[in-house]
Known about the structure:
structural constituent of ribosome, Large ribosomal subunit protein uL24, five-stranded antiparallel beta sheet, mainly beta, 1 helix, SH3 type barrels, 4% helix
Amino acid sequence: MPKLHVKKGDLVQVIAGKDKGAKGRVIRAIPREERVVVEGVNMITKHSKVTATGPRGAQQGGPQRMEAPIHVSNVKKLKDEEPKDDKPAKKADEASGEDS
């Protein structure tokens, strides 16, 4: 199974295809197929039938918009805007190391 350069939750940008330039978070990674599902990118319309009540409950029918997987080579990983750790950023006077 190949290793992907992106994982679930990463911020990525599409670099090729019809949604070139679009940015979004990875919802799902599929390493076996070398594909990822990106939030709001490569939207498709899937039609479903109305189902009767059953163990999972009733489902509404009709067209539903959902994201389709795209190949991992068509996305590049972007740096996150917010820092991952909970440490506060150092202030300028603390960084210089001067004691009063």
